[in-house]
């Protein structure tokens, strides 16, 4: 049985070239980048080369890139670091109601420290409307954090417009770019960003490594004290193999992102048409066009998403319901709830996220497997059409 992986929003495989680049840093090149001898100098040089590559991926300066342990830490550092450093200016933060928990839970923690957070509503297509952002701004707003693209439904936000509003009002603008960096072109200048979170394992790099872009001059405080690594913003001996892997992954993504986005868009649209065309009472969650090339999120009436995942898995197909982080909870997805779906509709969702390994042949196999599995489940369902 051919195994087909279509859960690339949860994680991606480490690219062979990335693994090759990392391997020497587990064996011969094991120096601590803070050491003054040649072992340390080699490690430092590798880190700085990786920093330049990550910067190039998002049109930043190398000095604006800080390595972290992943997307979650980057979000924590951006939100807490900016909130703490700017608390004399104000204590109000604006975000959206369907951010990843790495942002939402940080906001909840900040609320316990007497910060005030506004969670903006989103449209049925999953858009944060710039006018709604503008209307939420107060005299004490210090930070706006809106994810570049949603991890469940793939809607890409009008970042440029939101960035312009933030700039005009002198408010910092952070984005969780975990689902976009390496998947679509990302330019921090064009988007008007002050901070951007990136995760290695979503762009064919290793797990446990990430980066935070912080625009030069942004006032941000360290949330992890220690030996003063990463310009004093993120202490801890650098994960040299991870950083080298992220650098190589960023380099590869920069080379391929435009062509790969085009290729995946064609695959995505074929799968969308096949599924929606052949299955009654099915729909697409998220924006019809302003969405990630890799993302489809379907809704099927009379279906339990979890049962569908298990049937597909039995046929060698990996997909998901909602986000990987919440799919074990069985609670209705906060993202689907935010776009206005009721609990029953939320439970009938299927997220398919494409990656570099997927082909047209996969698309045809998967659309057929979805069609047959939905039909089988509906026949068994007490709720379903008879
Ligand atoms: N933000 C988004 C939008 C994500 O999709 C994820 C991972 O699922 C994260 C943050 C967390 O990133 P990491 O797994 O690197 O901590």
What do these coordinates show?
This protein is 40% helix and 13% strand. The protein is α/β, with parallel strands linked by helices. The radius of gyration is 21 Å and the shape is globular. It binds pyridoxal-5'-phosphate. Pyridoxal-5'-phosphate is lined by residues 70-72, 75, 100, 102, 147, 151, 176, 178-179, 199, 201, 210, 324-325.
Short description:
The chain is of the alpha/beta class. It has helices spanning 16-22, 38-57, 71-85, 101-112, 130-136, 159-169, 188-191, 240-278, 305-314, 334-338, 343-347, 360-380, and strands at 4-5, 65-68, 92-96, 116-120, 141-145, 172-176, 195-199, 210-214, 282-284, 295-300, 317-318, 349-353. The protein has two domains: 4-11 and 257-380, Aspartate Aminotransferase, domain 1 (Alpha-Beta Complex); 16-253, 3-Layer(aba) Sandwich (Aspartate Aminotransferase, domain 2), CATH 3.40.640.
Gap from first CA to last CA:
32 Å
Radius of gyration: 21 Å
Give the distinct bound molecules.
Answer: pyridoxal-5'-phosphate
Q: Assign the CATH topology of the largest domain.
A: Aspartate Aminotransferase, domain 2
* CATH superfamily annotation of the largest domain: Type I PLP-dependent aspartate aminotransferase-like (Major domain)
Which strand order do you get reading across the main beta sheet? 2-8-7-6-5-3-4
What's the helical proportion of residues?
40-55%
Shape from CA axes?
globular
CATH architecture of the largest domain: 3-Layer(aba) Sandwich
Main sheet record: 7 strands, mixed
**Contiguous helical run count:** 12
Q: Provide the domain count.
A: 2
How large is the share of residues in beta strands? 5-15%
Mean pLDDT: 96
Q: Give me the secondary-structure category.
A: alpha/beta
The total of beta strands comes to: 12
């Amino acid at each position: 049985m051919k195994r087909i992986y279509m859960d690339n929003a949860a994680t991606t495989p480490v690219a062979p070239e990335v693994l090759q680049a990392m391997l020497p840093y587990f064996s011969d090149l094991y120096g601590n980048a803070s050491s003054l001898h040649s072992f340390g100098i080699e490690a430092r040089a590798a880190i700085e080369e990786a920093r330049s590559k990550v910067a190039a991926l998002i049109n930043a300066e190398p000095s604006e890139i800080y390595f972290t342990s992943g997307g979650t830490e980057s979000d924590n550092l951006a939100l807490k670091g900016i909130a703490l450093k700017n608390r004399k200016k104000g204590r109000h933060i604006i975000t959206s109601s369907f951010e990843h928990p790495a942002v939402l839970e940080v906001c909840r923690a900040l609320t316990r420290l007497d910060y005030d957070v506004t969670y903006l509503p989103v449209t049925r297509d999953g858009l944060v409307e710039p006018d709604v952002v503008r209307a939420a701004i107060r005299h004490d707003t210090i930070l706006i954090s809106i994810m570049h693209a949603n991890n469940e439904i793939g809607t890409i936000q009008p970042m440029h417009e939101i960035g312009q509003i933030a700039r005009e009002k002198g408010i910092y603008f952070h984005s969780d770019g975990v689902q976009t960096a390496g998947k679509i072109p990302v330019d921090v200048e064009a988007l008007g960003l002050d901070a951007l979170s990136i995760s290695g394992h979503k762009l064919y790099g290793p797990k446990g490594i990430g980066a935070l872009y912080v625009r030069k001059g942004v006032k941000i405080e360290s949330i992890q004290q220690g030996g003063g690594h990463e310009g004093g913003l993120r202490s801890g001996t650098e994960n040299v193999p991870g950083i080298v892997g992220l650098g190589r992954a960023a380099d590869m993504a920069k080379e391929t992102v435009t062509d790969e986005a085009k290729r995946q868009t064609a695959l995505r649209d074929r799968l969308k048409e096949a599924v929606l065309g052949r299955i009654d009472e099915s729909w697409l969650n998220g924006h019809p066009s302003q969405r990630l090339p890799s993302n489809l999120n379907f809704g099927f009436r009379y279906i339990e998403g979890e049962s569908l995942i298990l049937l597909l898995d039995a046929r060698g197909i990996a997909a998901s319901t909602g986000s990987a982080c919440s799919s074990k909870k069985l609670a209705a997805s906060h993202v689907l709830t935010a776009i206005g779906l009721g609990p029953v509709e939320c439970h009938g969702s299927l997220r398919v996220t494409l990656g570099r390994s997927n082909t047209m042949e996969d698309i045809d196999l998967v659309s057929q497997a979805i069609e047959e599995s939905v039909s089988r489940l509906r026949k068994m369902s007490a709720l379903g059409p008879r």
